Amino acid sequence: xSEATRKGxxxxxxxxxxxxxxxxxxxxTTPTEPQRRAIPPIAxxxxxxxIAPTGSGKTETAMLPVFDxxxxxxxxxxxxxxxxxxxxxxxxxxxxxEWWGETLxxxxxxxxxxxxxxxxxxxxxxxxxxxxxxxxxxxAILTGEKLREGLADVAHVVVDEVHELAAAKRGAQLTVGLExxxxxxxxxxxxxxxxxxxxxxxxGRFLTGDRGCSIVEIDAGSDIxxxxxRPSIEERDENVAGEIVTDAEVASHVRKxxxxxxxxxxxxxxxxxRQTAEALGSxxxxxxxxxxxxxxxxxxxxxxxxxxAFKDGDLDALLxxxxxxxxxxxxxxxxxxxxxxxxxVSRLLQRVGRAGHRRDRTSAGTIVTTSPDETFEALAIARxxxxxxxEPAAIHHGSRDTVANQIAGVVMDLGEADARRAYEIVTRxxxxxxxxxxxxxxxxxxxxxxxxVWLEEDADELSKRRGTWQYFYHNLSMIPxxxxxxxxxxxxxxxxxxxxxxxxxxxxxxxEVFIQGGEMWRITEIDEDDETVHVTPVGDPAGEVPSxxxxxxxxxxxxxxxxxxIREIAADQLRAGGxxxxxxxxxxxxxxxxxxxxxxxxxxxxxxxxxxxxxxxIVVEFEGRDVVLNAAFGHMVNxxxxxxxxxxxxxxxxSSVGLDVDPYRISLEVPRNVTAGDVVDVLKSTDPAHVKGxxxxxxxxxxxxxxRLAQVATKFGALKNWRGRGSNRFGRDRLLEALEGTPIxxxxxxxxxxxxxxxxxxxxxxxxxxxxxxxxxxxxxxTAIGRGxxxxxxxxxxxxxADASVIQTLKERIQADRxxxxxxxxxxxxxxxxxxRVRDQPQxxxxxxxxxxxxxxxxxxxxxxVKADEKDDEQERRTKRAHQAADLVQSHxxxxxxxxxxxxxxxTNAARIINxxxxxxxxFYRDILAREREYARTRSFWE
Length: 943
Hints:
Blueprint: H1 3-12, H2 17-26, H3 33-43, E1 48-51, H4 58-70, E2 80-83, H5 91-103, E3 108-111, H6 117-125, E4 130-133, H7 135-142, H8 145-151, E5 156-159, H9 162-166, H10 169-185, E6 189-194, H11 200-208, E7 214-217, E8 224-229, E9 237-238, E10 244-245, H12 248-262, E11 267-270, H13 274-286, E12 291-294, H14 300-311, E13 317-320, E14 335-339, H15 345-352, E15 363-368, H16 372-387, H17 400-414, E16 416-418, H18 419-428, H19 437-449, E17 453-456, E18 461-464, H20 466-474, E19 484-489, E20 495-500, H21 501-506, E21 513-516, E22 519-527, E23 532-537, H22 557-575, H23 580-588, H24 595-606, E24 617-623, E25 626-630, H25 634-653, E26 658-662, E27 665-669, H26 676-685, H27 691-699, H28 703-715, H29 732-739, H30 743-756, H31 759-771, E28 775-780, H32 804-816, E29 818-823, E30 830-834, E31 852-855, H33 860-867, H34 873-892, H35 894-900, H36 906-915, H37 921-938
Parallel strand pairs: 1-6, 1-7, 2-4, 2-5, 3-4, 5-6, 8-15, 11-13, 11-14, 12-13, 14-15, 19-23, 24-28
Antiparallel strand pairs: 9-10, 16-18, 17-18, 19-20, 21-22, 22-23, 24-25, 25-27, 26-27, 29-30, 29-31
């Protein structure tokens, strides 16, 4: 007997005869590593968390002992639940489960939102032995009268992709759902399956309600190979069509990706935004590469079509976003390309883990980088991935709208419930163990006030009322209920695709440009009633600036710190006399990149003058009104620290402070009377204990909070059928005012902070600055590292240097754009007209004044603000901006109006453009274009 067979027999001996016989029929002789280590404790009935790479047999690891436990003597009801975050179960996985069911005479069925009414009725009348479902559908079936009877027999629950759920509200909701199931079925075995987890013990507590579990972890990093490559730039590149691509750098990226696709049989190409997927797909098709595009904005049938085409070998590659990170079945993949830094270790492991899903294959991938920042970042992430240093899951502890949702669920389960019992059920779930009775009572009262449940105050009794059923089934999911807008081509009438409501609310306006389906489109009209965005194709893509950018994936603190460490080591060696080639060789010995790639990144350090920012050194540089803190603490800390500085400096000066953040820099645009010394003073004098309060105060007027507030209010039943754009009709400001001080406001604030900020680490950083553990140095002028900017911002269809066609297109667009002309002197004159029809020196026909503000056509609120007798802070800000615009128009006439018509330019930047005193008209427009690109690149979620 071979050693492999002996080990297989030893592991599989924990299973009964029927399952072992089926294993033999299936050709299983040797267990995979997860099966070898996890089957014994699972077969013994122990709760378990199995962490192993995709394709290593995790499903069978969990289900073989479950099948064995129920085979031969299944209960009348449902014996096991298999919970997956994917509504459409991986087809390969479903085939495998159904094979086991047929072989062992067990019925396996699937239940999700698209299951037919007929099939649901069959499941209620005759429950399957194993039910595969989603977290949301579990919420629904827990309240169904007949299915509750079937669920009473559940003895095993398997939760797939538990890492994905642990970091989401739908996962927090699931943990309470499992406690509600426990009320019905009694204790049951819990098995979690995960690809990558940074803190297994914490995820184990999430899974089991902190009741302990066996953790089986297979090191994903030991079986991956990752190369980091920054392509070299050639002078020019001629594509298949014979057209010369003017942006040589972007051409080199596309050429390298095409080369990687060509040298492998089956390649997944991951990108970080849908826009990049569309743009890169368009470029690769010009090279003659047969690629499919896969992202969340595409219709589900379009996604399935490209999945099948890729699986059948009809495509050379599949271009995808995070839509392909989970276990969607696309067959064998032999290589993964990541374009731009993956920004997180977990993402890299999940993505590269899709390649080489065979026991004799290592998962292989290539990261294609575009700048020094990105190269250093990719080097750090690749090393951390190989070492298994994964980010912890950001569990949503204490989310109040989830508690509200689950209080209604408990009432639906029981008809009526003592508030104490509801509290005990909810707080048994790990994310809610710290919810106090006082907070719970506030949430209950809010639900009662919103007519979601009936509260008998004297008896502390909760019961159903007429609105309970409707509320609960409208809020089965904790994913915000956002509308999807159809994108319709106004020329042909065909549907181009769809857009998320969040983007339409916060971005879309007539004239804006975006990419979809590999083509560029300009918005002509937004029909809110029909939820349709009407567009026209952009005739000359090379002459346009896409103004739509996606939300950045945050780079974690530890990654940014290692980037700073690499820079510091390289700088020390260079300044000690080492030549760049030897430093590159040294770093190539530790990191996964060729010397040429590392050498190209070192140029940033070679040209840097002054102290180099490091893991424990912040370098503050300043020039004019620009102050940059070179601070390598990742997105969330830098966002928190940047907002703190912006708020406190603004408070000191009474002026607004511009803010832009990336993982390595905090860029401030300050009033002229603010110096770098003022910034240092704020860092050294701000009490770390006050950070939380100051940040909460700074968020109060953020549009992001108001948008989130409406979503959370819907989850509390305070708003019915909310739609983001429609909320403007009653005013988000009034909504904020009405809900401040309620659990709804507290939750909206908590969620924003949880997703975007790191208050704890920022407070600690301030303490370290003030104690001297983190050095603070200042330099006059800008440095090479300080000018480095965000590495992943360049989009493929936005050439860096504007040629004549770009400038001509920009001129035509601005001249055709409409502006509101409003007299700030008499406040009686207002008109809207195209820029080309505005006089060289506009004058008010009512009072003769030349103080005419030029405003965007959708900025009626500013006109209202100027006319208001009593103004709030936002109205004061708008009024100040209108007067600044009027001052510019009075001094510079139509030149100012043209500058102000630029996308996201505003009075401050318009003044800077005008003050350059450009004699050449094209250079003047180039300055406007540069500001538009900067605005498109840095437009942040906080806007």
